[in-house]
Specification:
By secondary structure, the protein is an alpha/beta fold. The chain has 14 helices and 8 strands. It has an 8-stranded mixed β-sheet, sandwiched between helices. Strand 4, helix 4 and strand 5 form a beta-alpha-beta unit. Helix 9 packs across helix 10, helix 12 runs antiparallel to helix 13 and helix 13 runs antiparallel to helix 14. The termini are far apart. The structure holds NADP nicotinamide-adenine-dinucleotide phosphate.
């Protein structure tokens, strides 16, 4: 049987994600019926912003007065929270329980399915800050949905109500999907942190460095949107400037630590992109770059060689 067009929603956990999605759904006309959380304060603060929403003193009460319960607790708490819920699909309470984690398998909700309830995953590809800005910044993002029908259709409608694009992944694909998504979020910050730490050796503060490189990063992202990853690739690898790459690897090798290794692994991916460019650099130049990279990865150290390309960098 399909879900109501505007099912009653309940939340267990009143953290950063819940603060955004519960308010957005309430504004979009979905009744948010109840919220329970470990500490009463955040649950009360959120419920006060949602017409008709009660603060429940235990998750079972949330299940009793909603159609779909979202477990918006830390990942390690999802299994225990699901285990503690009693679901009676033919009753007046919840018939579905959904978690919002990208990495945790949906099967962690199996105790709910064993009681005849529907289970699903609803993972927004967005870093929630717990701030008002989340309500507008989430628009245009994607939400990865893993659920059987008719819950999948309802979750798709909820994603659209946030202004997001629904995305579906095959069952069991969550861990790979989530590991890969890090590169577009936390690991982008890790790459910036490497820029900052290297530029600090030139006397720049983190603020100086970010002011200088964030507009370049924003431009790179826009170019990738227009021209794809290979088309947007710039820098020495895109031109086949093997001499520059070798010298930079040697310089970073000399700094110790894992600076050269990180640069080498990133360069490996850049070489793959360079090969896919409409006009790729010469095969010989890319082979030289790959040899230098593999030397570093194999722990043989970067070997400085005579300059092959121009001295100009970006
Ligand atoms: N934040 C993100 O950017 C983001 C993005 C996509 C998906 N997610 C997913 O969304 C889920 C929630 O993440 P979040 O960042 O919103 O977490 P969060 O900010 O740490 O909030 C978690 C909330 O759950 C409450 N809580 C903890 N244990 C509980 C329990 N056993 N029973 C009831 N409430 C409990 C916490 O209460 P206290 O107030 O007492 O600590 C807090 O209100 C996670 O599965 C996460 O993977 C998060």
């Amino acid at each position: 049987m399909p879900y109501s067009a505007t099912p009653r929603l309940g939340f267990v956990g009143a953290g950063r994600l819940a603060r955004c999605v519960a308010r957005a759904w309430s504004r979009a006309g979905y009744p948010v019926a109840a919220i329970a959380s470990r500490s009463a304060g955040p649950a009360r603060e959120l419920a006060d912003q949602l017409p008709g929403c009660i603060v429940a003193d235990d998750p079972q009460r949330v299940a009793a007065c909603s159609d779909i319960v979202f477990l918006t607790v830390p990942d390690d708490e999802i299994g225990a929270a699901a285990n503690a819920l009693q679901i009676v699909p033919s009753g007046s309470g919840a018939r579905a329980v959904v978690h919002c984690s990208g990495a945790t398998p949906v099967d962690v909700l199996a105790p709910v399915r064993a009681q005849g309830g529907d289970i699903g995953g609803f993972h927004p590809l967005y870093l929630f800050g717990g701030i008002d800005g989340d309500l507008t910044r989430i628009q245009g993002c994607s939400v990865t949905i893993e659920a059987p029908p008719p819950l999948a259709e309802t979750l798709t409608g909820l994603a659209r109500a946030l202004g997001c694009h629904p995305l579906s992944i095959p069952p069991g694909g969550r861990m790979l999907y989530h590991a890969a998504a890090h590169y577009a979020a936390s690991f982008a910050l890790s790459a910036l942190s490497e820029t900052v730490s290297l530029w600090q050796q030139l006397g720049f503060s983190e603020d100086d460095a970010l002011r200088a490189v964030l507009p370049m990063l924003a431009g790179t992202i826009e170019t990738a949107r227009d021209k794809g990853l290979a088309g947007a690739l710039a820098g020495p690898v895109s031109r086949g400037d093997a001499g520059i790459v070798e010298k930079q690897l040697a310089l970073l090798d000399g700094l110790g630590g894992d600076h050269a290794l990180l640069y080498a692994l990133m360069t490996r991916r850049a070489v793959e992109l360079a090969r896919r460019r409409p006009v790729p650099p010469s095969t010989g130049a890319l082979a030289t770059i790959e040899r230098a990279v593999e030397n570093v990865v194999a722990g043989r150290g970067a070997v400085p060689r005579p300059t092959l390309g121009s001295e100009a960098g970006e």
